[in-house]
Amino acid sequence: MYEANPYAISRTADSTSIFFIPRTEDDKDEFIDLLFAELMLRGLALDGNLEKLHRNLLSALVLEGKNRDNLQKLTECSALEACITALLHKTVDILHAENRIGIKLMAMVLMEGFSNSLDRKINVIISSANERINAYLE
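Given the sequence above, the corresponding structure tokens read:
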């Protein structure tokens, strides 16, 4: 027998949840204010009805989650090959803006690490720049 998920029910009743379902006009107005604030924070469009605003914010949150997961996986890589493999598998179609942004974020993390290796900000006890970079990659 199917049982309802208690977490799903509580999320629809929580006015700060993206899954909130407004029941009154006051709830709807407060939820729209929350959607506006979150969309403005992300620099996204503020036009449209409640459903369109909700859909736009939900899409942005899903994308943010994917990028956060990808960055976490990237920081856990133990070698350059693993990092590149992770990048290639997570960026299926580079024609989409969100994938280009994801590639840019990951490339920036890699470049920052290389720069820190060259500037002796990490692995300071290693004298050779090449050895510091190899230590960073490992």
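The mean pLDDT is 78. Try to locate this feature in the token string yourself.
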